[in-house]
């Protein structure tokens, strides 16, 4: 049976990827549009989708976007980017604009929620009903799939901004403009660089700065385990990908932090599979948009 064709857009902080595909083995087209001001960017995306004639060829449009997003269908600003620190982008009506441009049903969610869905469908979380996708890069994003559906309600989870127990003896204030020492303020790339005073790529694998990063990310995973009961956590993004020595350290710190409670024994027995690398790499975002489009048809969201 031929898989239905979907259109997708990954809306990122520096670039957007448009895609026309059924899945990873049937990608008909991709195109990049630079993220500049909202008007130019949305017009550029709409032009690519029009050129591909997605309104007649695709069944639905999925959008995985940077946020924060309003995802409550009863809210007046549903489908918009809301109160983002990214200059000029607050109140951009992403879903409405691209839905009107294509005439397709639209499913909008965060880029990480889309990536989590794509990993469940085609990547490293296949066969699971509930899992988390964590990316530690320019920010810390967490996409959660529970029972096959992305978690959304009043907006969407923002678990990268959880407040955590600090590492004993560490008083560095963190650099999140909203919370200071939330996980993102302690362990995202810019926090690491602010703390170390140099580019992260110049730091050796044994640099002292990594101790605090391991602690903060392990605390994040501890809280994800206890709030969402994931069957697996996929850990990706520029920081763990370029510093792979951190991954076993984060696994060890997570098991220690869980303290043997609840499912900790099963997690410890299988820790290398429980905290695992994503499988889709750079395609997780674009394929996430395709997985969201498929949900628009499955769940009948227009
Ligand atoms: P984005 O989050 O924008 O999608 P990435 O996931 O690639 O991008 O993450 C970018 C971050 O990765 C940067 O903030 C940078 O600090 C960090 N980074 C880049 N190179 C390294 C490195 N060699 N070691 C650790 N961190 C790095
Ligand atoms: Zn924060």
Number of extended strands: 12
- The low-pLDDT segments are none
> Biggest sheet, in brief?
5 strands, mixed
> What is the 3D form?
globular
CATH topology assignment of the largest domain: Nucleotidyltransferase, domain 5
N-end to C-end Cα span: 25 Å
| Widest β-sheet, arrangement of strands | 3-2-1-4-7
H-E string:
EEEHHEEEHEHEEEHHHEHHHHEH
Give the helix/strand layout.
Layout: E1 6-11, E2 15-23, E3 26-34, H1 38-51, H2 54-57, E4 61-65, E5 80-81, E6 92-93, H3 94-102, E7 106-110, H4 111-122, E8 131-136, E9 140-146, E10 149-150, H5 183-187, H6 189-196, H7 209-228, E11 233-236, H8 238-242, H9 246-258, H10 264-269, H11 271-274, E12 275-276, H12 284-299
Parallel strand pairs: 1-4, 4-7, 8-11, 11-12
Antiparallel strand pairs: 1-2, 2-3, 5-6, 8-9, 9-10
Helix pairs in contact: 1-3, 4-12, 7-9
Bound molecules: adenosine-5'-diphosphate and zinc ion (ZN).
Zinc ion (ZN) binds at residues 161, 176, 178-179, 182, 184-185.
């Amino acid at each position: 049976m031929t898989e239905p064709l979907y259109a997708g857009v990954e809306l990122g902080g520096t670039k957007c990827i448009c895609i026309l595909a059924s899945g990873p083995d049937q990608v008909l087209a991709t195109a990049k549009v630079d993220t500049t001001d909202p008007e130019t960017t949305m017009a550029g995306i709409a032009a690519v989708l029009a050129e591909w004639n997605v309104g007649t060829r695709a069944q639905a449009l999925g959008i995985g976007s940077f946020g924060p997003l309003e995802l409550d269908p009863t809210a007046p600003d549903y489908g918009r980017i809301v109160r983002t620190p990214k200059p000029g982008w607050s109140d951009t009506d992403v879903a409405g604009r691209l839905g009107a441009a294509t005439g397709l049903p639209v499913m909008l969610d965060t880029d990480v929620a889309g990536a989590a869905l794509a990993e469940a469908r085609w990547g490293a979380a296949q066969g699971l009903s509930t899992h988390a996708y964590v990316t530690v890069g320019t920010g810390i994003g967490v996409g959660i799939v529970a029972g096959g559906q992305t978690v959304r309600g009043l907006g969407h989870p923002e678990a990268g901004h959880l407040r955590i127990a600090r590492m004993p003896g560490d008083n560095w204030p963190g650099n999140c403009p909203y919370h200071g020492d939330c996980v993102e303020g302690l362990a995202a790339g810019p926090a690491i660089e602010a703390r170390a005073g140099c580019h992260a790529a110049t730091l050796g694998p044994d640099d002292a700065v990594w101790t605090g990063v391991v602690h903060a990310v392990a605390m994040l995973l501890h809280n994800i385990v206890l709030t969402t009961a994931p069957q697996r956590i996929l850990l990706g993004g520029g920081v763990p990908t370029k510093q792979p020595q951190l991954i076993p350290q984060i696994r060890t710190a997570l098991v220690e932090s869980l303290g043997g409670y609840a499912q900790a024994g099963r997690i410890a027995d299988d820790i290398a599979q429980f905290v695992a690398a994503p499988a889709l790499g750079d395609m997780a975002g674009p394929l996430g948009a395709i997985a969201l489009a498929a949900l628009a048809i499955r769940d009948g969201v227009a």
